[in-house]
Amino acid sequence: MMRKIPILCAILTTIILLTGSCKHQSVVEKLGLQFDTIHIESTTQLVDSGVSPHCQVNIDLIVVKGDEYRQLTDSLLRSGVLQPDYLSLTSRSFTPREALDTFVIRYATDYREFYGGLLTEDATEADSASLSLTYQLTTEIEEGRDDVLCHISHVSRSEGDLTTSYTVVNNMDMAKRKLLHLDDVFVPGYQNGLNEAILKSLEAKTGIQGLNNLRQAGYFVSTDVYAPNNFKLGDDYITFIYMPSEIADREKGEVAVDVKYSAIKRLLNK
What are 261-270's pLDDT values in tens digits? Predict the structure, then answer.
């Protein structure tokens, strides 16, 4: 079941408050932006009889209203916010409502097809519990640098007792009506300088000096320092967000590294 509800006033209030101390006009005010929250709840039983494991999906997705932002919203829906990224398997354009409906139907179908054969007649209660899945997505919006709105998705996925939580950020340039990627933010050849800045910020965050020492502590053990495509363009700094297990031990969870714009001024496009 799906229902479309207005965005909470508190979210808009938060956006205004976040920009209240800034001298520039809020992009929300400047462009007269309006928002919707698309809500969906769905529960799918693994089998049709008896006490069955289940797959539960709960989503609250904030989107910008207006036909002029439809292409931006379509890009957002295919940006990794929804996982698996079923929508990228087709070039068809979806409304947010259609997109979530399509995602939930496919997610439920895959669940029954993959896990259905794992449930045996002699399965214990613990076995059944291990086959239950939950997928929860909540979103919020923060005002960022210049005309950017940061669309922040908080995702929690559980399989039995194992839960993984992570954040996906999309930076929406509302003036240009497009999602921003690293190549849009930085000048060509930015990689080495940006990696150095990330390393220095991680050293300051952890209090551990030197890449070798950071590796001994469980960071960047099997990879060089790099900037992920998951980042947030704040007013004073850019935050790079690494998924759990992406650059560090799983126990450390999600790792966020703040790099001040002043430290990378020569690398910025503007």
Answer: 999 999 999 7
**DSSP character at residue 33:** -
Give the percent of the chain with pLDDT over 70: 90
Angstrom distance (rounded) from CA 143 to CA 149: 5
- Does the pTM surpass 0.85? The reply is yes
Q: 217-244: buried (b, 16+ CB within 10 Å) or exposed (e) per residue?
A: eebbeeeebebeebbbbbbebbbbbbbb
Which residues does 183 contact at the CB level (< 8 Å), separation at least 6?
none
The residue type found at 210 is G
Q: How far is the C-alpha of 262 from the C-alpha of 111, rounded, in Å?
A: 47
The H or E element containing residue 13 is helix 9-19
Cα(267)–Cα(197) distance, integer angstroms: 11
**Rounded (to 5) percent helix, strand, coil in the chain:** 35, 30, 35
Q: How far apart are CA 30 and CA 104, in angstroms?
A: 35
Q: Which one-letter amino acid corresponds to residue 21? A: S
CA distance 117 to 114: 7
Question: What is the arithmetic mean of pLDDT over 173-180?
Answer: 97
Q: Identify the CA nearest to 154 among candidates 171, 138, 176, 170.
A: 138
Residue from 46, 38, 49 nearest 7 by CA:
38
